[in-house]
Specification:
Elements lengths: L1 E5 L4 H13 L2 E6 L11 E4 L5 H11 L3 E4 L6 H6 L1 H22 L2 E7 L21 H14 L6 E6 L2 E2 L9 H10 L4 E4 L3 E2 L2 E2 H14 L3 E4 L5 E2 H12 L6 E4 L19 H5 L7 H15 L8
Parallel strand pairs: 1-2, 1-4, 2-3, 4-5, 5-6, 6-11, 7-10, 8-13
Antiparallel strand pairs: 9-12
Helix pairs in contact: 1-7, 2-4, 4-5, 6-8, 8-10
Bound molecules: NADP nicotinamide-adenine-dinucleotide phosphate.
Length: about 300
């Protein structure tokens, strides 16, 4: 089986490439601006999602049975400031991927986001009505619609939340920023009024590979347990034995953000659990993250 992973240089994409290689797939992966650093064994191509002809070329070369579309313009504030770019990459790019998948009869997995919800309630189920409050969420929701238009059970939309993990390509995320600060004895500001379901990226990648192999389709929430960003940072401090007072609770309103954030975009994951997909307990996943981070910093990423 041949899989095409878009966004292989991203936080999740890198771990997806690794997970599919370990599952025995022939892996084709794409990058955009950053040179791919392994894992060894995948075939890499540059892709510009905003150019439908480029999407068609990559499909022609990779001829995938499955495409896992993880690439996106993920800078939430950047999307608000550059809505045209967000529209071209997240919506039109996903539409082009879905069209190529349909044309070639490839199964499509689309990695979507908790930010399709307005965050007024939290613990959202798959059938709850999305109502994005920022441009990133809106363009990702349009990507969902393009994916859901594929025939029958030929697609899977996986909504995830607050990804954290070590990224061998150097991609920053809240988890890595907080971990580095705590390890260096610096303070960390963390929102205590934003709730989500922090999800460990390497685990998520393995879960997606498992879902593809089991033939799951439709919409699925795959994420960790609900907590605030502040609680997450506190747990990280606990995992590295740092002074918890280094973690400073901060209201979202204190940050000058271009895009509004949902107050509580946590996800209800009961459907995934029923399929045997269960995120490890937060303490265990966070410990795994810290160990991976400390180990990986000393190794050549292509050999991880
Ligand atoms: N991070 C989160 O907390 C979170 C939460 C919910 C959902 N998600 C979704 O999960 C997926 C993975 O997120 P992530 O955090 O792993 O992403 P990421 O680290 O920001 O990586 C994004 C990837 O997309 C590629 N890319 C960006 N613009 C592109 C373009 N115009 N054409 C082709 N490729 C392009 C990047 O390539 P280069 O690096 O080579 O430029 C990179 O490989 C995304 O679909 C995101 O919407 C993320």
């Amino acid at each position: 089986m041949r899989v095409l992973v878009t966004g292989g240089t991203g936080l999740l994409g890198w771990w997806l490439v690794k997970a599919f290689l370990e599952t025995g797939f022939e892996v084709h992966a794409t990058y955009h601006t950053r040179k791919p650093l392994g894992p060894n064994g995948a075939s890499w191509r540059r892709l510009e999602l905003a150019d439908p002809a480029d999407v068609a070329r990559v499909f022609e070369e990779a001829r995938p049975d499955v495409v896992v579309h993880a690439a996106a313009y993920t800078d939430v504030d950047g999307c608000e400031r550059s809505p045209g770019l967000a529209y071209r990459v997240n919506y039109l790019g996903t539409l082009a991927v879905a069209r190529e998948a349909a044309r070639r009869g490839a199964f499509m997995v689309y990695v979507s986001t908790d930010y399709v919800f307005d965050g007024e309630r939290g613990l959202y189920r798959e059938e709850d009505t999305p109502r994005p409050i920022n441009y990133y969420g809106l363009t990702k929701l349009l990507g969902e619609a393009s994916t859901a238009a594929l025939p029958g059970d030929s697609s899977l939309i996986v909504r995830v939340s607050g990804l954290y993990g070590y990224s061998p390509t150097g991609k920053r995320n809240f988890g890595v920023n907080a971990l580095e600060a705590l390890l260096e004895g610096r303070s960390v500001k963390a929102f205590d009024d934003q709730y989500l379901s922090p999800t460990y990226a390497p685990w998520l990648a393995g879960a997606i590979a498992k879902l593809v192999s089991s033939g799951a389709s439709g919409v699925l929430h795959v994420a960790g347990e609900r907590m605030s960003r502040y609680e997450f940072a506190l747990r990280l401090a606990e995992a590295v034995g740092a002074d918890p007072s280094l973690v400073r609770p901060t209201p979202m309103s204190s940050a000058r953000l271009a895009a509004r954030r949902p107050r509580d975009s946590s996800l209800d994951v009961r459907r995934a659990k029923a399929l045997g997909i269960t995120h490890p307990p937060a303490a265990q996943a966070i410990r795994g993250f810290v160990e991976e981070y400390l180990r990986a910093r000393t190794e050549d990423p292509s050999t991880l």
